[in-house]
Amino acid sequence: MPETDSNTPIPSIQPEIPVPSTYGANNIQVLDGIEHVRMRPAMYIGDIHSRGLHHLVYEIVDNSIDETLGGFNDYIFVSLNPDGSVTVIDRGRGIPVDIHPEKGKSALELVMTVIGAGGKFDKGAYKVSGGLHGVGASVVNALSEWCEVEVYRDGKVYFQRFERGVPQGDVKAIGSSDQRGTKTTFMPDHLIFKITEFRKDIIVDRMRELAFLNRNLSITVQDTQGEIEVFHFEGGLKEFVLFIDENRMGLLKEPIYIYGERDSTIVEIALQYNDTYQENVFSYVNNINTQEGGTHVTGFRKALTRTLNAYAQKNDLLKNLKLALTGDDFKEGLTAVISVKVAEPQFEGQTKTKLGNSETQSIVETILNEQLSEYAESNPNVLKVIIEKVKGAAMSREAARKAKELTRRKSVLESSGLPGKLADCSINDPEHCELYIVEGDSAGGSAKQGRDRSFQAILPLKGKILNVEKARLHKMLENEEIKTIILALGTSFGEEEFSTEKLRYGKIIIMTDADVDGAHIRTLLLTFFFRHMRALIDAGRVYIAQPPLYLVKSGKEQQYAWDDDERNSISDSMKKMQKGKANIHIQRYKGLGEMNPEQLWSTTMDPAHRSLLLVSVENAMEADHVFSTLMGDKVEPRRDFIEKNARYVRRLDV
After folding, report:
1. Which of 230, 309, 360, 490 is deepest in the core (most CB within 10 A)?
2. Do residues 495 and 435 share a domain?
3. pLDDT tens digits, residue range 97-107?
């Protein structure tokens, strides 16, 4: 900026956009809470698709959970009703219905219509709480076509109905009852949501999770067919860990359980070691899943590493190990659930699911250090098993380090060189580049010829990649196909070196054949990305291509079909154009190589017409459960999973 003396006038800058001469107070639009929620729903529930829809249920349930945390409720009933509405019932104290002294309205109406009205702000009512801190019920009400609330308290039943957040009358007593609690029924507004059909499996996963986290609570879920599932776990977090590890071989007779309270913070931890090479740590604050971790997880890791390391040194359990143990060595085969109850949680991070309270770290560290030290002294045999597992991880880490050095010397993991089989694109802007990971040379050849080489790169794989669920790090780095993928992506590998900022492609698209082998290769690739490049999935970078399953032809007319129903619909339609005289020919594509380059481009690779399936993780715990079932060593759980889900299969290779 040029220097000026105090006598030099500073020129005024005139805006190029004219300001209306009538611009005044009447131009300022003021929206009340309900109107703002309906205009900007994503600000409150994340989105207006499946995630946001199910979030409505969680908000009402969270109010009941808060009653549980306060010691006032032990039961929640969730019903997915045939008409598309949802009912949530609890046995808590019931929302107050008396008139608020300042607002002149019933407390129930205020809770359901005013953003920020609720007992969560009064520490005398709730010591800890989850949800949206007082805005949950009003947000659900605002985004519902209608909502009805029944309150059972003081020997009476009270009722109030709302339509799109607006009360349809005052609260009124409609009967008497010796029960207590709240019953809320709401119908999601089809004017707001793109999807209004609730999925039972999503609701069940969350309710099961809440039952694990609150062992004094029983949760019943009823679906539209009237089928009921009940979740109640007296073992709490110990049973949670056993559920997560049910498809793995545990190394301990039972999980280690830690519980402690300090400065109004409650700490609960359950941990177990198993015979796999993955780490699974799930953390919660006031029942909220903190997917990004935070200070409670940092305190857990520090205390676990320091306590176990100190015990091993003290008892001479590392005498044959020539390496110093690091925090990473204690992660292999570890499954843990960390649950803390904090009076005033401070969340940060991109999705507001990372705990930032600095005091929580020291509290978790202190409690875990004290109790784990006592456990170690009383259970020496268990500690020997754990330390042997950790020593194995340390030796594997060293082997992986040597493997990395060796491959770097061969320029295998260096970004300066690319794999020879990669047909790269010509532009280098990652946001506009795509990498197709394709099964086999035949499909790779068609894809290379059919692609738009300016922005689409093709990486053909030879055979099936290693099942990383059963392999340690150094074995992975010896696998040629995995090394090729790492090199092509450019992200490097390992916790210390991996970086999404180095990613060379904005979209990573898995494209495999529509048969059993193709499905297996796709699952192997997804396992690799989920276990070792999870950040790419979280960033929305991984996709699955959707090539057509059939080509339906009649004379010169031809159409593609992506499933059996579409095939039948097209076939029937062709017969009615041609008055039943159509000679229908149906070609089933089992392999991508069966399509010529033009067909592959027009159906599967052309951004204007293709259909891509985004790979996302709504529930990390459930995703881990599925991968360990499908790719682990135990056969029985895999068979049970296939039998249970066979009816959902859309593409079956016979």
Report:
1. 360
2. yes
3. 998 888 788 99
| 74 flagged as catalytic | no
Non-local (6+) Cβ contacts of 56 within 8 A are 45, 86, 139, 140, 143, 144, 186, 188
Residue 439 annotated to the active site: yes
Q: Residue 162 maps to which CATH number? A: 3.30.565.10
Segment (H or E) for 269: strand 265-273
Say whether both 227 and 267 belong to one domain. no
Q: How many C-beta neighbours within 10 Å does residue 301 have?
A: 21
- Alpha-carbon torsion (259, 260, 261, 265), positive or negative: negative
215: which 2 tokens?
Answer: 């062992």
Q: Tell me how far apart the alpha carbons of residues 204 and 229 are, in angstroms, rounded to a whole number.
A: 8
* Predicted local distance difference test score (pLDDT) of residue 10: 33
- Asked whether residue 428 falls in the same domain as residue 341, the answer is no
**Do 134 and 163 share a domain, yes or no?**
yes
> How long is the chain?
654
Separate counts of helices (H) and strands (E) for the chain: 19, 24
The answer on 499 and 463 residing in a single domain is: yes
pLDDT in tens, 156-212: 999 999 999 999 999 999 999 999 999 999 999 999 999 899 999 999 999 999 999
Distance between CA atoms of 137 and 110, rounded to whole angstroms?
10
pLDDT (tens digit per residue) in 240-269: 999 999 888 999 999 999 999 999 899 999
Query: Is 328 an annotated catalytic residue?
Result: no
Q: How far apart are alpha carbons 569 and 557 in whole angstroms? A: 15
Determine the distance from the C-alpha atom of residue 43 to the mean position of all C-alpha atoms in its chain, rounded to a whole number.
19
279-295 tens-digit pLDDT: 999 999 999 889 889 99
* Residue 598 falls inside a structural domain: no
Q: Is 62 a catalytic residue?
A: no
Q: Do 374 and 470 share a domain, yes or no?
A: no
Q: How many domains would you assign to the chain?
A: 3
Q: Which two tokens stand for residue 529?
A: 């990305």
Domain boundary among 171, 202, 231: 231
DSSP single-letter state for residue 123: T
- Catalytic residue, chosen from 239, 469, 515, 624, is 515
Beta-carbon contacts of 581 under 8 Å, excluding residues fewer than 6 positions away, are none
For residue 152, give its domain range: 33-231
Of the residues 59, 67, 332, 439, only one is catalytic, namely 439
Is 54 part of any domain?
yes
Q: How far apart are CA 143 and CA 187, in angstroms?
A: 9
pLDDT in tens, 81-98: 999 999 999 999 999 999
Task: Quote the pLDDT of residue 319.
Answer: 86
Do 394 and 424 belong together in one domain? no
pLDDT tens-place string over residues 316-330: 999 888 888 999 999
Which one is catalytic: 332, 513, 594, 622?
A: 513
Q: Are strands 86-90 and 181-188 parallel, antiparallel or unpaired?
A: antiparallel
CB–CB of 109/97 below 8 Å?
no
Distance CA 287, CA 309 (A): 31
